[in-house]
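**Archive record**
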Amino acid sequence: MSLRDDINAEQRIADLEATLVRVQRQVKTAQARSADLVQAVYQGARDASAIAGTAKPVKPPKARGSKGSPEVALLHLTDTHIGAVTASFDSAVAEQRVATTIQKTIHLADIQRKDHDVDHCVVILGGDLIEQTGQFPHQAWAVDASTFEQLFDAARIIEAAILTLLEHFATVEVYLTPGNHGRVGRGKGRQSLDYESDTNWDRIVGRIIGERLDAQTRLSWHPCESWYTIVEVGAYRALAHHGDTIRSFGGNIPAYGILKKHLAWASGVMPDFRDAYLGHFHTPMQLAMNNGGRIFVTPSLVSDSAFAKEFVAAASLPAQRLHFVDPDRGRVTAEYLIWL
């Protein structure tokens, strides 16, 4: 690298740092209306992209010979809580665990490819992508970065994960659902007293990533339109949501409340679905419904979670969930918990 290149690189870094400082100030002062806050963040993302550049289209993987009926990899990536700090978890650990999740997904897909074509990967981003700093009074002492820094860390980490998947799958499809840690301002659960429910950090992270990856023609992006989404993989239909809307447990046993709510939803209240995917409870669960479907609760990336220990009396072992789906028969054919 020449001296001129060194100077240009240093100038780009300086410009990027100045931009981020300026936008951080805008975010802190944009309290009058939620539109001001969101616009400040989006403008910061656009400015950062203009300076640092966006990812070039990723080359597709080499074509593989046919190995039988096709299957689809379905990765439930949820409750990453980037920015949270426990005795064994922080932002650096979160980034490493996301990368490990992606590498294990690729490895398991290669195993599945010995008997099936697995060219498509569906990713459900299940909410609580960042920890943020306004969920509870002492939260500012349990994080290692400001909400603003967490926001862009999450976008960077998840963007890298999706680009890696594009290197190993012919096509990738992403669905997003918001979580309660995405709430902006004061309030309870995902509901904010300061902003309307559409203003959610998870949605903002998703929009930043979606815009930055717009050049990836093999990527399909489903923005978050509601508190839930219906994931479609051929004939397979699944309900995806964060899980924080389930607040009545009956004897304080979460599994009972989770099952009761989903049975009610499956009775015709919600659009038709076979299985359901949620996070929020930081512990793995699998519950059978009387319609033949199942409810899959995916753990978080966080280890030593006080929430899991106090609320669900669980050990909080970090893991994510990977399934393989037969799109023609509309059912899960293989299922894994990716322990981290």
Notes: The chain has two domains: 3-52, 70-339. The first helix runs from residue 3 to 29.
